[in-house]
Fold Holliday junction branch migration complex subunit RuvA.
Amino acid sequence: MYEYINGLITNIYPAYLVIADRSGVGYKLFVANPYRFEQNVESHVYVEQIVRENEMTLYGFIDENEKYLFNKLLNVSGIGPKSALAILASDDAAGLVTAVANDDASYLTQFPGVGKKTAQQIVLDLKGKLDDLALSAGMTVETVPTTDNQALADALAALESLGYSAKDVAKLQTVLANQKDTTDGYIRSALKFLVK
């Protein structure tokens, strides 16, 4: 129902802020990180209204991209508004988009309230749906590079399945690309490198 509210931010609390519009009505907006806003400053805050059986709640966002990401997260099974705000509070939208693009569920578990199953669900539900956000926000998404060396590709896939992040695997590929080895040999070399 609401797209945004222009007004004076009158109060800032740990979980929400109050913004008064020009007619004097104060709106309580739950936000990911209220301290990104300044008190007693006219602001343009994007808003999402969520209506539940026994409550109507307004959620505020610093920009359209944050609101877009919030709505995408709400489409993930097991993610509600509070969980979505907790994820957004980390202020790592680029990391989230990159993790989804690279199927890196282990990276997503660093967000509050996101366990292994929820992280896998986020990747499953949002894969390919955040590309337009990355483009509009000017984010660069680091994807795991591919290789023609099948043994190396198998080793890298095995390392990812063991829970190593896509970022670590990409670094390993550059280190191991100059070697000729078997899949097992690549895995041993990679593990030695990771333990250092």
